[in-house]
Design a protein that fits this description.
Blueprint lengths: L8 H9 L4 H16 L2 E4 L1 E6 L25 H14 L3 E6 L7 H14 L4 E5 L5 H10 L3 E3 L7 H7 L6 H14 L2 E8 L6 H14 L3 E6 L16 H14 L9 H6 L3 H7 L4 E2 L29 H10 L3 E2 L18
Parallel strand pairs: 1-8, 1-9, 2-3, 3-4, 4-5, 5-6, 6-7
Helix pairs in contact: 1-9, 2-9, 3-4, 4-5, 5-7
The structure holds S-adenosyl-L-homocysteine.
The site of S-adenosyl-L-homocysteine has 18 residues, from loops.
Length: 345
């Protein structure tokens, strides 16, 4: 594990598949994250603003065709209110994530972004609104949004088709990532681990795609089955493979912001802590209104209590210190970010 540049497919395959490498991968990954980001763990307040979605991804619990979900949509004012509440709790990044809810227009998002930025000059806004036109992305960026999370989900075209209905384009999603990058967003890609029909070769393709894209953020988590979806009977993804992949990503992307995701915390009680030790450096506690947290049900048994809840930031801070890290209080941009030009490399 000496030469960490240009790791070949064969080595990657071994590391992805064989758990005997997990410990050494984590040691190497932790060393790299400490060299680049020190012991900092960045926190983001996650506002799940709507579970209404026009899409019907086969894996996702809030897919349009799932009639069993109780749908909700926060108002523009409620969303801004959550940001105010989160700011007082100490959050300096807000992530607005939702289904692809056409009830929200560009102007609604622009108002939310501008109002939050007018209130607080020291916060970053991350959007996760799915695939939109380049013009729309541009407007959102010009309004002041800083980052955009859009997992590619898979870099294999046939696999993409197996996970999504015909109406969702493989090329469009990839195009959207390049558009976001070009516009200037700190962009985030990623994929689920062990999504149905995924092979190791496909994961390697995902890694190669990410190497081309050079994202500021990479989000991965285990696939978790969700009732009332076409994939409800597929098994959950591997916890240990997810940890190995977090380490591999840290080794290949030293500067990346990598979250220990809610999905990882859902599959194992210690999942997020172990994710951090494996090389992750971001946590995204839930800042949605308490009465809707359960309804944003991408998968079954989603964790949103305890330290997964934004209100428990102090407790989270203690927990993080116990495992040798420290909660950062700043916006937590990617380390190569230039605030003046709004670019990173
Ligand atoms: N509408 C936005 C947000 C999607 S939800 C978008 O299209 O980007 C955020 C992420 O949750 C998805 O990108 C997907 O990778 C993940 N996700 C969805 N269903 C999941 C499941 N059943 N198990 C694990 N992760 C899931």
């Amino acid at each position: 594990m000496n030469n960490i540049k240009n790791i070949g497919d064969k080595t990657l395959k071994k590391w992805i598949e064989d758990d005997k490498y997990r410990k050494n991968l984590a040691i190497k990954a932790d060393q790299i994250r400490r060299e680049v980001y020190g012991d900092k763990v960045f926190v983001r307040g996650l506002i799940e603003f709507s579970n209404i979605c026009k899409n019907s991804c086969y894996y996702c619990g809030i897919r349009a065709e799932n009639t069993k979900v109780k749908r909700y949509r926060l108002s523009v004012d409620e969303i801004i209110q959550r940001a105010r509440f989160g700011y007082d709790l100490g959050f300096r990044t807000f992530v607005l994530q939702g289904g692809e809810d056409i009830g929200f227009r560009d102007d609604d998002f622009i108002k939310i972004i501008k109002d939050i930025k007018d209130l607080y000059s020291d916060v970053a806004i991350t959007l996760s609104l799915g695939v939109r036109s380049k013009e729309s992305y541009k407007k959102l960026f010009e309004a002041g949004a800083d980052r955009y999370l859009l997992r590619q989900e898979t870099s294999d075209k046939d696999h993409y088709r197996a996970l999504h209905p015909e109406s969702m384009g493989f090329e469009q999603r990839r195009r959207a990532l390049w558009d976001l990058k070009e516009i200037g967003f700190q962009v985030g890609g990623g994929f689920m681990v062990d999504s149905p029909y995924q092979t190791t070769e496909m994961i390697i393709k995902d890694i190669r795609f990410l190497q081309e894209l050079n994202p500021a953020m990479i989000g991965i988590g285990p696939f978790l089955s969700s009732k009332n979806t076409p994939f409800s009977s597929f098994p959950n993804g591997s916890y240990t493979k997810t940890l190995r992949l977090i380490s591999i990503l840290r080794i290949l992307f030293p500067k990346a912001l990598i979250p220990a995701t809610t999905a990882l915390g859902t599959i194992r009680p210690q999942g997020r802590e172990e994710g951090l030790k494996a090389g992750a450096n971001v946590l995204m506690p839930n800042l949605s209104p308490k009465d809707v947290r359960g309804a944003y049900s991408l998968y079954d048994n989603k964790l949103y209590t305890g330290t997964e809840s934004a209100e428990e930031r102090d407790l989270l801070s203690e927990k993080i210190e116990k495992i040798g890290y420290r909660l950062a209080v700043d916006r937590g941009d990617v380390i190569s970010y230039n605030k003046k030009t709004r670019r990173y490399d």
